[in-house]
Every structure is written in C-alpha cells, then in structure tokens.
Amino acid sequence: MHGLHTADQVRAAEAAMMRTVGDGVLMRRAAAGLAHHVREFLGATYGRRVVLLVGAGDNGGDALWAGAELRRRGAHVTAVLLAPDRAHPAGLAALRAARGRVLALHPPGPAAGPGPGAGDGTGTPAAGGLDAARALVAGADVVVDGIVGISGRGALRDPAPELVAAADGAGVPIVACDLPSGVDCDTGATDGPHVRAALTVTFGCRKPVHALAAPLCGPVRLVDFGLGPFLEGTGPHARVLSDGDVGARWPVPGPDDDKYSQGVVGIAAGSATYPGAAVLAAGAATLATSGMVRFAGSAADEVRRHWPEIVATGDITDAGRTQAWAVGPGLGTGGQGRAVLEEALDREVPLCLDADAITLLAQHAHLRDRIQGEPVVLTPHAGEFARIAGEVGPDRIGAARRAAADLGVTVLLKGNATVVAAPDGRVLVDPAADSWAATAGSGDVLTGMIGALLAAGLDPWWAAGCATLVHARAATAAAREHGLPPVPAPASAMQAAIPVALRAVRAAASPY
C-alpha cells in the first residue's frame, strides 16, 4: 500500500525539509532521478535528441538540471523556454554550462539585456519562433514536460498546446516531471489541452493524479529524496492497494474451517425475465471465497442450473442464515424490490447494495436512514451516485468522501479509477491498468465478490477495496485469455477469471 499526497501536503513537507538541507539540494536530487529515468527510457543517451519544454518555476528547473546531466552524458539537449523571463536561473545556467542549447519563445526585448533566454549556451544567439520549436519537438527522441508543476491549475496555455500537439503528431514520447502538465494534481481532472505522458517521473511521493488519471501519466517512477519523514505529520489524502496487500487479506480456508465458518453470503438479484444479474453476482460470490452462497429470487432455477453449489430459493424470507447479503442488480425498483431490500435490512448483517438497491435508497428517505452507521457498502456508478449524493464533479475523492460521511456507509464510486471511501474519511483508489471491465454485467460480478468478502468478516472498506482490485485483474485476465493482444471479454468471462486473478494476488503476497 502506498499513500497519495496532495499538492498542499507536498509543499508543506518540502518547506520543512528545505530547512534541514542546503539550498537547491532537493531540486538537484529530483533532477538526478529524472535524468536517470529518461536515460533508462531511451535505452541509450549518447547522440539522442532531447527537448525540454520549460515553464516558469521549479518544475522547469527540474527539467533544466536534468537536461544538463543528459547533455554531459552525450545527448543533444535543447530547452524551449515558454516563459524566458521566469525560467529557473540556476537550472538554466547549469544547462548552458553543459553546452545545452536554448530556444526562447517570446524572448525579452533588447532593453532587457542578455536575459536567461538570450543565448544557446555556446555564445550563439538562439533563433526564436514557434515554427523552430515545433520542428525541434517533432524531431526529438523524447520530450521532457517541465511546463507546470503540482501547483498548476487549468489547461495548458499558449504556446504549450501547439508544442505538445507537435510531439503527439510526430509520435514523440513525452516524459512528465512530477505530473503531466494540464492535469490537476489533486483530482486528475482536465479542462482543455494537456499532456498525455509515456512516462511520469514523480518526486518525493506519489500524488492523487497518478491514480486518478493513470492513463495520462503512463508508468510512474518515484524519485525518493527523503521526503517521507516530513509527510508523517499528516496522513495521506488517499491510499492505493498493491496485489500483495490484497493477497495477504483475501480469506482462504484454514485447517479448522468449514463452509459456515468461512462465511455464508446471500444474493438477492435478477429476475425470471432477466436472470443474468443473478447468475453473475451469485457465481462471482461462489468463486471469490470457499464459504457458502445462498440465493433468493425468481431467477433461482437459472442460478441452480449454472451453479449447483448454491442453495437457492424463490423468496428472501425463505433463505437461511447468512453473515452478509448482496442486494440490487436486476432487482427492480417497485414494491417487490423494496420489500426484498427491507427484508435484507431486517437481517442486521453487513450489506453490499448495488444498482436497483441504490435507486430505492435514493427514492425512500427511511431506507437511507436505516443504513446510517451500519456495515454497508454502496457501489454506484456516476449516474447512481448523482441520484443518492449529488453530481460527482471533477473531484472524485472529495465526492466519495462526502457521500460516505453523509450516508454513514462505505461508498465505492465506480470508474476507471475506482474510489472507495469510508465514513471515517479513509479513501482507497484503484487505478485500473486498462478498461476491460467496462462491459455489461461487470458490476454484478463485483457485487457478488464484495458480498462474499463481507460474509467472510472483512471490514466494509477493505472488502470493497480488495474486491475492486481483484475484479480489475480478472477483467484483464479475461481479455488476455487467448493471448495477446487482449480483446473484449464479457462479464461471464470476467467471472470465470476470478480464480486466475486470485492466484496472482496470492502469489504477490507469498514470501516464497
């Protein structure tokens, strides 16, 4: 598990650390790490063409110092200064001393004298102009994004979008310093032109953007320059689970266990007309743990046909004792569906509520009152979330945390980056490596898995977080079932791949 820290948290920690080290030490450490990862990305340095897109402030300074190191190792390095009068002076001096070239866009006028963008480091005046910058970018082996850092807000400003577009159009990879410019550090949101990085090199700690906007960051490499102790005063804004974390917590049978001691989960889902939700949710619960699954609903015959291990009945009132219930997919939002939800609430066991159960909560205030403070997981997508807690907006962590506090339950906000928030403010983010789980019935599979983990005794926050990660791994495994490249796979294939995903996370947790 690793933490995600906001821009404010990072700035405060860096300020505290800088009081204990010499001036410029943090930037030099960050830049050394950036240069190392750019060299690793390129595979070789000598003769490679590196273009730095340099904005104002420290992010541009990181890029300039890294450029100086790459130049000393034989790369052809050119810095394109987007704000020449505000380029980092020490970083620019280091690049010039290493005989790197500098191209200033909108250079200072003659009255300003030989400012930081006035030369190329060799005594030759640099040729200004956006056309020259575009050509440099399009001809590079790699572009380093040092445009804006963690304090940046909003979309890229001219002329940066044209240069980023030139790189994209020419197929030139971009390595981002700390985060892709134009992407919000704390929310991962974009509001116009932004960088899509092939690699992001971050400094000190990971930030929310790396999980919330993982497709825009590419692989993330952490340069650890000793910031950790200065972050300990405040907890992380959110956390990300690893495969090993999940594998270590996933329940497996011990020598004294039986089917009851491992947890019995009840599934109330689907209908005779639409049995798919029932088959997917109940089957996922069966594959997720070694306990027992009961099913209640009009799709009982279809569930028994697919899963003879499941004890199925037509009515929830006839279901036997369980340690948890998963309720909602395909249930219906009329009187019958409401009666099923009421009965599940009467059982006073942990609940996972999805789909129609969430709609019923949104429609009936007394049902929302009944879940307050109870061990309940809600699993809305953005539309369902809006019905019960208002629009998600750009800040997914903030929205899920607010909903969890207001409703008094754990909220799992679905998406490519799924957010799990507990009522006490704890937040997990699962940045899926791909989008293969975006298919009909996928949520039904997740509901059954969470229900099984609740029955096995996991805390709702952990149950939701662990199930989310395994669910994403199962989707990937299903898409790759017949080799590469991966291809779309239905939710039934995802369900069937749960054991594959579980083997992977358990292997990650194994010390051998």
Q: How many strand elements? A: 18
The biggest beta sheet is recorded as: 9 strands, mixed
Total number of helices: 21
Shape: elongated
Distance between the termini: 20 Å
Mean pLDDT figure: 94
Strand composition percent: 15-25%
Q: pLDDT below 50 for ≥5 consecutive residues: which ranges?
A: 107-127
Give me the side-by-side strand order of the main sheet: 12-11-10-13-14-15-16-17-18
Computed CA radius of gyration, to the nearest angstrom: 27 Å
Pairing-aware structural class of the strands and helices?
alpha/beta
What percent of residues adopt helix (DSSP H or I)? 40-55%
Write up what this structure looks like:
With 512 residues, this protein is of the alpha/beta class. 42% of the residues lie in helices and 15% in strands. The chain has 21 helices and 18 strands. The protein has helices at 7-18, 25-42, 58-72, 89-97, 130-138, 160-170, 208-212, 214-217, 228-231, 243-249, 276-288, 300-306, 335-346, 356-363, 365-371, 382-389, 396-407, 442-455, 460-479, 491-496, 498-509; strands at 2-4, 49-54, 76-81, 101-104, 142-146, 174-177, 199-203, 220-223, 238-240, 264-268, 292-296, 311-313, 324-327, 351-353, 376-378, 410-413, 417-421, 427-431. It has a nine-stranded mixed beta sheet, with helices on both faces. The protein has a seven-stranded parallel beta sheet with strand order 4-3-2-5-6-7-8, sandwiched between helices. Helix 3 packs parallel to helix 4, helix 11 crosses helix 18 and helix 14 (356-363) runs parallel beside helix 16. The longest helix has 20 residues, at 460-479. The relative contact order is 0.10.
